[in-house]
Every structure is written in C-alpha cells, then in structure tokens.
C-alpha cells in the first residue's frame, strides 16, 4: 500500500464550504505546500480550525489574506492583523478558544468522546452558553468535540503507510488533528519506504492517515 | 529608569521566585526576559506551550532551526534532557498543575486576583492563546508588568475588561514593588526604594495593605 499522491490530487478533495483543520503553531509545523496549493485553488467559504492564523505571509495566514475563510475557530489571531480586520468588518466569524481546550476538543473527537470537562474559562466569557458541571466542589465547563471534513497535517519523516515521526516543535496540533477528520492528508518533509521507520519512534500511527504528499523542506 | 531598565528590573525580581527544579512557563514579551536572570545554581525547566520542556537560550547566528521555536515563534534551543510533545500533552502539563510558576503580562489585574489580558473589545483582540489554561493550572501565577500604562491604572479594584481567569493571580511584580494577592486584598510586600509608599498607592487604584515587614525590593 502506498498512500502517496500528488499535491494537485490532494487539493481536489477540498471543496467550497468544507470544514478543514490545519496543524501548526505560528507557521511551525504547518503543511506549507498544501496551504499554498489551497490558496492557488482559491477554495472559498471554508470553516478553518487551527491554533492561530500565523502571519499574513506565513502559514494559514495566507488563507485569511486571500479571504477563503468564512468561519474561524482558533486560539490566537494577534500576529495576523488581517484576521482582526475581517473579524471587525463582519466578513469572517471568529470563535476564540483557549488553546488547551481546543487541543482536548480535537482529541475528544478523535478518541470518540462526547466532550471534555475543563476548569479553563470558568468565570470568563468563554463559559457563555456552555453547560457547567460541578465535580467534587469544583466547576468545569463541558466542551464538545471538534472534528473536520479534512485535516491537513505536517510530519517530518512519513512512511508510505502514513506512520509519522515528527521533528522539533512541529508536533503541536498535527498529531491530534490526524485523528479527528473524515479525511486526513499528511505533508511529509521526507517520504520513506515501509519498514524504514523504527516502530518505537512513530508518534502518529499510519491508520489515521489517508494520503501523503511530498512537502520537502528544511529537513527533507 | 528607562523602559528597558524597568523591564530588566522587573524580570530580575521575578527570576528570584524561581527555585531549583521548578517547571516554569514564561509568557511573550517582558516575561520572556526572566529566563536571562535565573539565579546561579538554580536549574529550572522552561516549558513552552507549543510543545516542549527544556527551552534553552537563543541560538548563535547561523545556528537557527526553524522547527525549534518558542510560543512567540522566536528561534530558541532545546537543552540536553529536553523533550518535545504535542499540544494535548503540553496542556496536560499546564492545566494539570505540573507547572510551578507561570509569568504573564496583563492589561489589568484586580484586588481579587482577577486577570484581564486577552482582549480590549472593539480595539484589540489577539485571543487568549494558552493564557487561560496557564493561569488556571499553574501552581503560582505571577504578573510581571509596568505598574501603569500611559499614566493609567492597571492594578484595579475590579477589572473591567474581559477576564482571562477569576481569582488566580498570586503575585504582581512591577517597577514599583512586589504585591501579593491575599484573602483580604492586595498586600505591598516589597517596595522599590526609588518610590514612597504613597506614590505606589497613587499609581494603584486598588487599596494597598502595607505589609508589617515591608522590605526593600532588591534584584
């Protein structure tokens, strides 16, 4: 089995109006080639789930600048002024979520859980509209799972089954998102044959990955 | 003191709170400077919420690795014994009470230990990032900031901006002094000898209780 496909073919799966999640943290560990191809294809009206909107010229920030996102779920948008502009003008709906909550919501979806209880956000505007549950005298917010039609993730070395080894601080949301979408496309710095990766080093099992595309970056 | 000296002074004082073996998370901006002043003989583990423990100093020129960056996207290094992990593990560490100290900036902090740091409605909405989890989960929350902004109070009776967390701040360190958040209000524990107690109170909207053993703020 070889899950490798071309970037063009991968991007064909993404249609107007879809919900997509993209791994990465301020550009680090973003699937940059897939993002560039998405900008080129100019898919519109996306619901985008990601940690942050990067910078205008870096990472998922390009999708914002190109006005492809209708609804954004993220933890931090301060490094990309364009996100704030589109939020203030009403062009884009922005839902801000605490980072640890977003991670657990995505993990919950991938793990088949009905939600998670977190103390984060209690007493703040984050709790608005959410169920509060008291456990052993402490209040928690019920946060629901978040999944997507498609996840675009980034790995360092990926074998042809899709087993992923990460490098440096690129793991962030990539591993979680790979578990939480109907279709998962992984961009590899380097694609290797099955058996070349020591099973002890794999972080994301290949069963989560549908397709692999070649990114080819600094460590490729 | 000019602005840089003020920031350095605050960072140096905050650094004295770090004990050997502590797991520490530093926010972006002034808090990041704290890492430069960890007292000699103290080994702390710096955690970065984008996914690692063992954050080292900035790399030498030419040695930068774009995949080893802090939560502010600045190139850093990872020390021997350091580890990388994903965002769920990162926030298990943070929310689960495994961080001994988090140092953050603030827009406002009040006498009940409430913190506002992530948005000014209609003006500036950077988002909370990891701050809400850090403030909720860390064993000790230290706010490191300039005492006032453009002459306006930042230490208030009650925050009027959207909160980051309720009642979680333990200590406030500014260029004027060190203030502890106690059950009955804010207690001035240390004062920068350049200021008088009345001046610190004037620069603070909340009422300050003066510690019986008020000390000189030393860095």
Automatic annotation (TrEMBL), chain A:
SUPFAM superfamilies: NagB/RpiA/CoA transferase-like. It holds the Pfam family CoA_trans. One of its GO terms (molecular function) is butyrate-acetoacetate CoA-transferase activity. The keyword Transferase applies. Keywords: Transferase. The keyword Transferase applies. It is an enzyme of class 2 (transferase). It comes from the Bacteria. Its EC number is 2.8.3.9. Belongs to the 3-oxoacid CoA-transferase subunit A family. NCBIfam families: pcaI_scoA_fam (TIGR02429), PRK09920.1 (NF007394). This is Acetate CoA-transferase subunit alpha.
UniProtKB/TrEMBL annotation, chain B:
Transmembrane segments: none annotated. The keyword Transferase applies. Pfam families: CoA_trans (PF01144). SMART domains: CoA_trans. InterPro entries: 3-oxoacid_CoA-transf_B, CoA_trans_fam_I, CoA_transf_AS, NagB/RpiA_transferase-like. The keyword Phosphoprotein does not apply. Keywords: Transferase. One of its GO terms (molecular function) is CoA-transferase activity. Belongs to the 3-oxoacid CoA-transferase subunit B family. This is CoA transferase subunit B. It comes from Wansuia hejianensis.
């Amino acid at each position: 089995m070889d899950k490798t496909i071309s970037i063009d073919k991968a991007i064909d799966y993404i249609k107007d109006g879809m919900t997509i999640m993209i791994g990465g943290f301020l550009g680090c560990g973003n699937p940059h080639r897939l993002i560039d191809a998405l900008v080129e294809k100019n898919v519109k009206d996306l619901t985008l789930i990601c940690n942050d909107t990067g910078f205008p010229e870096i990472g998922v920030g390009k999708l914002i600048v190109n006005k492809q996102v209708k609804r954004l779920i993220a933890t931090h948008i301060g490094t990309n002024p364009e996100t704030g502009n589109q939020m203030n003008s009403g062009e884009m709906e922005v839902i801000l979520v605490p980072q640890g909550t977003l991670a657990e919501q995505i993990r919950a979806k991938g793990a088949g859980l009905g939600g998670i209880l977190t103390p984060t956000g209690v007493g703040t505007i984050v709790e608005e509209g959410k169920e509060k549950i008291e456990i052993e005298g402490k209040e928690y917010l019920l946060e629901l799972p978040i999944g997507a039609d498609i996840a675009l993730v980034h790995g360092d070395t990926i074998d042809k089954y899709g087993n992923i080894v990460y490098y440096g601080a690129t793991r962030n949301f990539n591993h979680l998102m790979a578990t939480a979408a109907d279709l998962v496309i992984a961009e590899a710095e380097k694609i290797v044959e099955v058996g070349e990766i020591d099973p002890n080093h794999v972080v994301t099992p290949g069963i989560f990955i549908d397709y692999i595309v070649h990114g080819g970056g600094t460590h490729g | 003191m000019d602005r840089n000296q003020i920031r350095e002074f605050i960072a140096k004082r905050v650094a004295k709170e770090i004990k050997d073996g502590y797991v520490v998370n530093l926010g972006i901006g002034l808090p990041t400077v704290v890492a430069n002043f960890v007292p000699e003989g103290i080994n702390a583990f710096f955690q970065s919420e984008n996914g690692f423990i063992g954050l080292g100093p900035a790399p030498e020129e030419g040695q930068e690795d774009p995949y080893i960056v802090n939560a502010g996207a600045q190139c850093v290094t990872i020390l021997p014994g350091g580890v990388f992990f994903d965002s769920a593990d990162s926030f298990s560490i943070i929310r689960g009470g495994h961080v001994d100290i988090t140092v953050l900036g603030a827009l406002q902090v009040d006498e009940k230990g409430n913190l506002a740091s992530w948005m000014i409605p209609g003006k500036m909405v950077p988002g909370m990032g990891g701050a809400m989890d850090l403030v909720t989960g860390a064993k000790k929350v230290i706010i490191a900031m300039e005492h006032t902004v453009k002459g306006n109070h930042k230490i208030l009776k009650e925050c009027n901006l959207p909160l980051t967390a309720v009642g979680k701040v333990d200590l406030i360190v500014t260029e004027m002094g060190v203030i502890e958040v106690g059950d009955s209000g804010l207690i001035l524990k240390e004062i920068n000898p350049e200021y008088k107690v009345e001046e610190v109170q004037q620069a603070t909207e909340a009422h300050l209780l003066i510690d019986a053993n008020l000390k000189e703020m030393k860095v």
